[in-house]
Amino acid sequence: MTAPRTRYQPTATTALTPPRVVERTQLSDVDILANEAGYLRSNVGLLSEDVAQVHGDSLQLQLESHADAASKRSPLDLLNELAEKGFSWTSVARVVGVSIPAVRKWRNGNPMSGENRRNLALMVAFVRVLEEDYLIRDGASWLDMPLAASSFTGIDVLAAGHAHELMQFAAEHIRSKDLLDSAIPTWRDTLDDRFEVYEAPDGERAIRVRTKDKVG
After folding, report:
1. Residues 25-37: pLDDT tens digits?
2. What pTM, to 2 d.p., does this model score?
3. Looking at the domain 43-136, which fold is it?
4. Which string of DSSP letters, residue by residue, matches 95-120?
């Protein structure tokens, strides 16, 4: 505990000249700006993580909402819409998680399970969100494009159950390699032999074309 501060009482010799009070050196404008920027950066970093989480959750809710509406339609109607948009039955089977013969049976009027109907509705909903919210035309070919110089495509990501990450990629919030890191962590191990993974100067793993003497 510190002693109580006594009030300054002038004496005869100091009455006209009060004692000099040494104040703390004041920060310059540049110092203040730097401190405020650091404070804001710390808070923005925390907020960024929260915003990313909220955004991801909202994308999932958006997709679920569109799927709820699509699931009210007949399975054959959903299949026909995907076919009209250019999707192959192979792609539909992969995303829904069934065999191609199963899709053929549905086209012939055979019943499907509730889980498969929901997955089919989710695929239709996802394509609609791509078109309406991200202005992506010809979603079938967009989903067939190779990602990050690999053999993996958006269909692979969608089949792995990472639709909301794919939506973030469509919105250009994440890069293709970040998308694959999240959806297919082992994607770098199956790269085309024309490319190689190496450690970049910043210490991160990156991809580059192999030199001719390394390809074989």
Report:
1. 566 676 666 667 6
2. 0.67
3. 434 Repressor (Amino-terminal Domain) (1.10.260)
4. HHTS-HHHHHHHHTT----HHHHHHH
